[in-house]
Design goal:
Order of helices and strands: HHHEEHEEEHHHHEHEEHEEHHEE
Structural class: alpha+beta
CATH class of the largest domain: Alpha Beta
CATH architecture of the largest domain: 2-Layer Sandwich
Helix content: 40-55%
Strand order of the largest sheet: 2-1-5-4-3
Number of strands: 12
Number of domains: 3
CATH topology of the largest domain: Beta-Lactamase
Distance between the termini: 61 Å
Radius of gyration: 51 Å
Strand content: 15-25%
């Protein structure tokens, strides 16, 4: 029972029905007051007409008491609900339409603000008016009242009917309000069904946004976008797991194979040393891989930038050029740099990010080519680019170039020393600095572009 009252559809229906019931109650009260006022005005017009008629009869001369009584009786024919009493101040009754005496003291006590008079005779309620006039040179008082029993009976029935109609209408509105809200919230139920069917093996289902109400379309679009992100993240995670297994398996296989061969028969001491040196290289490779993965984990979860400094980018680039010059010379490659700019960054992290780009350009660049670097400031942005000759990469390869352990070589042979995490580390470091890195391949050239946003109020 508690769950039913905790539903959004029922809450909407109750709120809507409460507002409707209040409106119906006000409308019923206003209609009731208008009908009551209409009957009162109708009764007043009838009474005032009879008073004028009686006054006209009393003004006639030479009327005997019997003639006066007959004329007044004829004037009330067809008005059985009217009572008339004419009396002199001393209490002498000149005319009385009924045998029931109207107590003048009671009438005076119950006079209302609009000069209506109310009184009761034998459980019958009367509304009336009192008029003063001269008759035979003596003041008289004309009291005319009308029986309101029929009006009161009609108003009571009318009020009850309004109440029954209001209650029935409110119940009707509650039900159809709940039904409309339930129908309107069905897309949310569809979202729940889609969410229940989501698993690592099934992420392809999406909500049809064109069938969803406008109010829920932003939620449906965000839900579909979330599923797209999850599907891409899961695909990357699956590829990462496969790549990681391959990267770890290769050095482990080398270690086991060399150790098994070494132990297959007795050998000289220098043979054992060669195997140990070879194993040490593989272990160092595994160690670097683990260190890089730990660094990536720190940059993505909780690593905060410290020791930020204003760095002249051209000086940092020249330092890296001097460091890699000997390695580049082995492949007959040369460096060329133009431009200058200043950024706010952590020197150690920035140097590591740029070092990975330089190392990548030398490893995969064509021999006897030029590695070109450039930095400049444009519209509150500092842009650094590094360009080298290299193999043409497809759009799919470019989109995955920053994935961990991704290699463009489909054979996955480790031709160069490295962990396959350099570009991923570079991207993580730049993300920490609020920078963005892009890559494109055209005309046998690979161009990496880094964009730094300049923040004037950044603490150094």
């Amino acid at each position: 029972m508690i769950k039913i009252f905790n539903t959004i559809s029922l809450k909407i229906a109750l709120i809507f029905s409460l507002c409707t019931a209040i409106i119906l109650l006000i409308m019923g009260f206003v209609i009731h007051q208008l009908v009551t006022h209409h009957f009162a005005m109708q009764d007043r017009a009838q009474i005032e007409g009879k008073i004028q008629l009686i006054q006209h009869i009393l003004k006639q001369d030479n009327l005997s008491p019997n003639q006066l009584h007959s004329s007044l009786t004829d004037a009330l024919v067809g008005h059985h609900d009217l009572v008339v009493q004419i009396e002199q101040p001393m209490g002498h009754i000149i005319f009385q339409s009924t045998s029931q005496y109207i107590n003048k003291n009671q009438i005076i006590k119950t006079a209302t603000a609009d000069h209506w008079l109310n009184w009761k005779n034998q459980h019958t309620t009367y509304h009336g008016l009192v008029s003063e006039q001269q008759y035979n040179a003596q003041p008289i008082q004309i009291i005319v009242g009308i029986d309101t029993s029929e009006h009161l009976h009609f108003l009571n029935n009318f009020r009850n009917q309004l109440l029954y109609i209001g209650l029935g209408g409110t119940a009707f509105i509650i039900f159809f309000g709940w039904f409309a809200a339930w129908r309107g919230l069905r897309p949310i139920q569809k979202m729940a069904q889609v969410a229940e069917g989501i698993s690592a093996q099934h992420l392809s289902e999406r909500l049809a946004t064109h069938r969803i109400p406008l109010e829920l379309q932003p939620l449906a679009i965000a839900f579909n976008d979330m599923l797209d992100r999850l599907e891409k993240a899961l695909a990357k995670l699956s590829d990462f797991s496969s790549d990681l297994a391959h990267e770890i398996r290769t050095p482990l296989n080398n270690l086991m194979t060399q150790t098994q061969v070494c132990l297959s028969r007795p050998r000289q001491v220098h043979d054992y040393k060669e195997v140990l040196f070879s194993n040490l290289e593989e272990l160092e490779h595994l160690s670097r891989m683990i260190s890089d993965m730990l660094f990536l984990a720190k940059t993505e979860h909780g690593l905060h930038l410290t020791q930020l400094q204003q760095i002249h980018l051209e000086h940092e680039i020249q330092t890296l050029i001097d460091f890699y010059d000997a390695v580049a010379t082995e492949k007959n490659m040369a460096f060329h740099h133009i431009g200058s700019a200043t950024i706010c960054a952590n020197p150690t992290l920035l140097r590591r990010a740029l070092s990975n780009l330089f190392s990548n350009a030398i490893k995969y660049g064509q021999a006897q080519s030029m590695i070109e670097t450039q930095c400049q400031t444009i519209e509150h942005k500092t842009i650094f680019s590094i360009k080298n000759k290299g193999p043409i990469l497809s759009q799919e390869q470019l989109s995955r170039l920053f994935d961990r352990f991704y290699r463009t070589d489909t054979s996955r042979q480790r031709m160069e020393d490295g962990t396959g995490l350099g570009l991923a580390i570079t991207q993580s470091i730049l993300n920490l600095h609020g920078a963005k890195i892009d890559v494109k391949s055209c005309n046998d050239e690979i161009i990496f572009t880094i964009t730094f946003e300049l923040i004037n109020d950044q603490t150094v």
